[in-house]
Amino acid sequence: MTSTEQAQDRKEAMKFTRLDLKLLIFWISALLFLSLGGYGALHSSCDFVPVYTGARCLLHGCNPYDTTQFEQEYFQAGGSAGEMPDWDLSIPVYPPSTFLVLSPLALLSFPVARLLWFLLIGCLFVTSAALMLYMCPRSHRWLATILVSLILGTSRALLVAGQPATFAISLLVIGSYFFLRGRFLPVGSILLMLSLAVKPQIGGLIVLYLLVWRIHWRYALVAMAGALALLLSAGLILSLHPRSAGWTSDLRANISTTVKAGAINDPRPTSVDATADINLQAITSVFFADAREFNAVAYAVFLALLAVLVTAVLRTNAGPEMYLLSLGALSALSLIPVYHRFYDARLLLITIPAVVIVFQKRLLLGAFIGALTVLAAIPVQAWTQLFLLHHALLQSIAQNKLLFILLLRQQKLELPILFCLYLVSIFCIHFPSAPGSAYRRLGEHDQVASVKHALSAARQRCYSMLASARCRQE
User: In what helix (H) or strand (E) does residue 270 lie, and over which residues does it extend?
Assistant: First the structure.
């Protein structure tokens, strides 16, 4: 072999393929997510404290909704006063099933449990992002890599807070992936069950969709029944202990406290914390001051949008692409009717394959949905509010309702728009129905094409080696 050929071989060996570059970008964003989030998680995890301590209360017979008993368990587990959250801001309102799911961690001391929690939710979220990336067609894997990496790289706050939503969203995404691919269905059912048990408001509509549209519906039914069983079991355990027998009244009181005027979950414009809310009440409360009125309007809008989605889905052919578009619309719709914070918007990670499908069929529409997905997942309005507070402009902005919504309710506004864009896609893009089984493996044609490409490349290398051998013999 000549020196020129050797130099060419070295150059080709050092050259990154497109696939390598995509993987490099993804893993860089994953490392940023884990490293930046991990440093804060090991010194804070303020959202992990209520669920961890509540799980200890479940095991030790105290009331997880009584902050006085709460603090005693927290300090006995090795927690420090400096890391304990303000109970006026972190009032415990999680369902009892959350504590039952996390009870294995409650057997450990708080520092050890916090470290394991960080590793668990960090790895689960990266895994869910990788599966959504793998689900996208190879022909548009660049677009999927950019979207997934942007969401992953900007999610460090979920790790810093130790937010249980990270756990619920990751399990929901992974479980849905197994359902759509028709693989590891018992595992997928267990993952969906645990997700519903921790935060039912995140994945409830999606699991219900799997059940109603009969996508491995028996496993979806098992997931819903299992989550309900966990809830009833945890409630029964609390009711059997004297100190926690009145947990239902305490939970109702805590929920009422969080949503009253000026409280942490008050969606009204006068509440500074409402910027972090992404449910529709944060917009309807701008026009209606009474809680019953702005809640009723939000529920009415939700039901109307849900009815339109059901009508659209019934008029289309069932198939893998339509399932993904429906999940994309449902993901945006799930964040609208009830209380959700900005970190719940990471549920939009499950919509990345749907974005790519629309991009393949309608370039401009897909690009717009992709850009809106990233914006809806990132809480830009929080930075806007800090800027307005710093320059004493918040009061003047609040006097103009339209400007107030555009600047400080951006994330809430983008979710209904994103839902409507998915509706447009469902109505405008026609997909053939899946012959035989409606659950054929998504991306199967890409795998076949990849194998054919690899065989062709191997054949070419063999021809090149034979030609080189003949040249040396001559």
Answer: none
Amino acid at 110: F
Nearest 5°: phi and psi at 108? -105, 165
Question: How many whole angstroms separate alpha carbon 146 and alpha carbon 154?
Answer: 12
Long-range contacts at 243-251 (CB < 8 A, ≥ 24 apart): 243/61, 243/62, 243/63, 243/66, 243/69, 244/57, 244/61, 244/62, 244/63, 244/64, 244/66, 246/63, 247/63, 247/64, 247/65, 247/96, 250/63, 250/65, 250/66, 251/65, 251/93
pLDDT digits (tens, 9 = 90+) for 253-303: 988 888 888 788 889 888 888 888 899 999 999 999 888 999 999 999 999
19 neighbors 206 (Cβ within 8 angstroms): no
**Cβ atoms of 313 and 248 closer than 8 Å:** no
End-to-end CA distance of the chain: 13
Q: 464 pLDDT band (50/70/90 cuts)?
A: low
Cα–Cα distance, 472 to 474 (Å, whole number): 5
Dihedral, CA of residue 45, residue 166, residue 191 and residue 127, to nearest 10: -110
Specify whether the CB–CB gap between 330 and 354 falls below 8 A: no
Q: What is the DSSP letter of 341?
A: B
Amino acid residing at 139? S
Length of the chain: 474
For residue 197, which amino acid is it?
A
Contact, 341 vs 276, CB < 8 A? yes
The DSSP secondary structure of 229-250, one letter per residue, reads HHHHHHHHHHHHSGGGTTHHHH
173/190 Cα distance (integer angstroms): 12
Look at residue 465 and tell me whether its pLDDT is greater than 80: no
- Phi, psi (rounded to 5 degrees) for 85: -70, 165
Residue 462 has a pLDDT of: 54
User: 445 pLDDT exceeds 50?
Assistant: no
Q: What is the DSSP string of 183-209?
A: -SHHHHHHHHHHHHHH-HHHHHHHHHH
Say whether 277 sits in a helix, a strand or coil. strand
DSSP code for 335: T
Q: Which two tokens stand for residue 266?
A: 């008050």
Question: CA-CA distance, 161 to 65, in Å (whole number)?
Answer: 20
Chain centre to alpha carbon of residue 101: 19
Residue 136 has pLDDT above 60, yes or no: yes
What are the structure tokens assigned to 197, written together? 């048990």
Cα 122 from Cα 117, distance rounded (Å):
8
Q: What is the mean pLDDT of residues 160-182?
A: 94
Phi-psi region of 400 (alpha: psi -120 to 50; beta: other; left: phi over 0): beta
What ranges make up the beta strands (E) of 168-327?
Answer: none
